[in-house]
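Quick review question:
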């Protein structure tokens, strides 16, 4: 656990408590040493977090303390707005709404001095036509998160329709549309499927028979090999 995350967890632990909490109890919960907790509490007190107490007795967080608002630099805020705006203009309806909600949440928590970065952003996204799709991209993302197989009816660039069972890996977003990267059981190989050419799709009850990280690592190796062959052929 990073120190910044640990400091946050200590504050949250003290916030939940009604009585003094010992360094030993916090250390056991966070799986670190008591000495680490003593140092972390000293850091928090140095940052003016109102913690009172002492070793051997316990610590309490004074009432009324709250975490500071989300602190972003102007460049970080511009980056967040640019990314959210891109998703809002190119994502499927569910993800586009989520991006718009994210922008609203950022506006609610950043200091007032930075509101202009949201209301009058310094960046913009050019609108592009997105090919219509017959399936819900949100369903594909759900299958990826839950590690389940998908059955597809897919139309290739010649108009031929095939039925495949695939192991979804990730959904790639581009200006011109979306592409599903997956292991295809029919071809016994990694394949890419344009989502606007997927005629129908269903999540199966069957789970992918390997860990998600392992499957993605195999896909990355295949991608790297394919890129090397492509570069070698161009020389």
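Suggested answer, residue by residue:
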């Amino acid at each position: 656990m990073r120190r910044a995350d640990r400091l946050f967890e200590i504050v949250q632990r003290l916030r939940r408590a009604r009585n003094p909490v010992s360094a030993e109890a916090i250390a056991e919960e966070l799986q670190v040493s008591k000495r680490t907790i003593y140092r972390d509490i000293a850091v928090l007190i140095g940052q003016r977090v109102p913690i009172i107490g002492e070793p051997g007795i316990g610590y309490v967080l004074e009432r009324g303390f709250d975490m500071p608002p989300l602190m972003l630099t102007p460049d970080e805020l511009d980056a967040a707005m640019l990314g959210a705006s891109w998703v809002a203009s190119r994502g499927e309806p569910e993800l586009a709404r989520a991006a718009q909600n994210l922008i609203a949440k950022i506006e609610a928590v950043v200091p007032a001095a930075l509101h202009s970065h949201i209301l009058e952003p310094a960046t913009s996204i050019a609108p592009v036509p997105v090919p219509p799709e017959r399936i819900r991209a949100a369903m594909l993302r759900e299958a990826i998160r839950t590690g389940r197989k998908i059955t597809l009816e897919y139309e290739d660039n010649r108009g031929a329709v095939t039925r495949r069972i695939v192991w979804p890996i990730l959904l790639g977003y581009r200006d011109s549309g979306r592409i599903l990267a997956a292991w295809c059981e029919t071809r016994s190989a990694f394949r890419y499927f344009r989502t606007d050419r997927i005629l129908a799709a269903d999540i199966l009850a069957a789970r992918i028979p390997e860990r998600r990280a392992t499957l993605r690592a195999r896909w990355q190796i295949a991608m790297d090999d394919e890129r090397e062959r492509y570069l070698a052929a161009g020389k």
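Why it works: The mean pLDDT is 90. The chain is about 45% helix and 25% strand.
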